[in-house]
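Hi R.,

Here's the chain you asked about this morning:
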Amino acid sequence: MAFGPASRLGVSLFDETPPIEWVSGLSQEDSETIIRAVYRQVLGNAYVMESERLTVAESQFKSGNLSVREFVRAVAKSDLYCSRFFTSCARYRAIELNFRHLLGRPPLDLEEMRGHSTILDTQGFAADIDSYIDSDEYQNTFGENNVPYIRGYKTEACTSMVQFTHTFELVRGASSSSLKGDLSGNRPKLNSLVINPTATAIIPSSGAGSTFRTPADAPARRTPLGTSVSSMGNVYRIEVTGYRAKTVNKVSQFRRSNKVYLVPIEQLSAQFRRIHAQGGVISSVTVV
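And the predicted structure, written out as tokens:
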């Protein structure tokens, strides 16, 4: 689908890059390109050291004994993937990243996430990975020979505006990785947003708020200041995350959580000063 200002939303590389497909007769160089693309997608754009590569699976793929799909399976079931995205992550963070890495989209809703949680409880990690790769969706979308890719911003991959906006919670540009460059780290991003289906603001990945993490109780933390529409016609949403202040307050009130303010334009300057004096750091300012 034609997708407007894709560069501003951080998906231009995904939008402009055609799917990478294995075809018979590829050169060794082409096979290396596919291998690198699989690592990049399945490992969430994380750096892979030479010593971490799956040399046996790579050799089997190059010799034609593994299809692209089976190589994806080998990477996703590897100790490398498990240690990065399962044993070191909260349960629902691991699940939402599995959707990003293996199906290229965010989860549809809480029930879809619960379904995978049940598989993890009853059958284990390997069986849950199989449930994505053996699904009709994977087969119909990627088949045996296509490398999975980010597609959650496309209409055919999403069934609601909520799911569309959640794509940008999980994908913040082609240069960011799944766990780095994001304040959520290994904690769930979508859990509270799928419990009560909540669409989220899409912040340009190059903006100051591109790493902002919506807190679990975001609605309760929205602090309106002034009227809903200011005398000058605009209200601004200020997203604040925190750090331990070094010079003003030794302990910031924002140290443990994020906060959102809705502020009329004429109060912006004063509110900025209050936030900074209290030890907060502004991560995004957008018009409501």
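The first helix runs from residue 12 to 16.

Let me know if you need anything else.
M.
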